[in-house]
Every structure is written in structure tokens, then in C-alpha cells.
Design goal:
124 residues, Lipocalin, eight-stranded antiparallel barrel, disordered N terminus
Length: 124
């Protein structure tokens, strides 16, 4: 019985452990992909149980804009969190990420928007 519980706990933790680390990502181009090339960015994820911490580094004018992951939650292979863009008009983004094999796929949606930006990520 103890062995069965240990194996079950390991099976639940295995997908989460697969998300830890540094990921290189890019947003998909817009409706006119030729006019809007993909935008690279990166994730640094740290999974602890069902909690997630880390950061997202997005392109900036001169250097990357690093935003802390807030309210991170993991449910199996599905991860949700928020980030906040500071400035004159602060903006919050909701992220939904799914582990699909050896890559991440998901979307980032601005608070109040109907549609988000899709992206994919590969582990570094």
C-alpha cells in the first residue's frame, strides 16, 4: 500500500518537475505573419508542489523587461499565472501554459481583453 501511494505521488510530481527551468519562447505572428514576425521572450520557472514562481523576460526597447510570476498555480500539466507590466499605465496579463511533450504551449491575455497572444516554448 505504501509503495502504491509513493508511486502515485511520483506520477503526479513528474509532469511538474518537467516544467522547472529556463525556456526560450516566441509569440506567434499576428493575422499577417509576414508583417509581424514572431517575438522572442523567455521563462524561468520554479515549481514547488502546486505553486509556481519565477519570471518572464519580454523584449524591451534597449534591454529585456523582466516581470515576476504572480499567483502561479499548477494543475497536472496545466499552469496559470499573472504578470504585471509597470509604468505610467500598469497592465496585468493572465497566462495559461500547458506542457505538451518537451515543449510549452499557451497564451498571454491582457486583463479585460477577449483574445490573447499564442506562444510556444522550448527548454534551454
Amino acid at each position: 500500500m505504501k509503495l502504491a501511494l509513493a508511486l502515485f505521488a511520483f506520477a503526479l510530481a513528474a509532469p511538474a518537475a518537467g516544467m522547472d527551468g529556463h525556456w526560450s519562447a516566441q509569440f506567434a505572428g499576428g493575422k499577417n505573419a509576414a508583417a509581424q514576425p514572431s517575438q522572442p521572450f523567455s521563462f524561468d520557472l520554479k515549481i514547488s508542489g502546486a505553486g509556481v514562481t519565477g519570471s518572464v523576460a519580454l523584449p524591451g526597447k534597449k534591454k529585456p523587461r523582466v516581470e515576476a510570476i504572480e499567483n502561479g498555480k499548477l494543475d497536472g500539466t496545466h499552469l496559470t499565472f499573472t504578470t504585471s507590466q509597470k509604468g505610467k499605465k500598469p497592465v496585468s496579463f493572465n497566462w495559461e501554459v500547458t506542457l505538451e511533450g518537451d515543449q510549452l504551449a499557451g497564451s498571454r491575455t491582457r486583463d479585460g481583453a477577449r483574445h490573447g497572444q499564442k506562444f510556444t516554448a522550448q527548454r534551454n
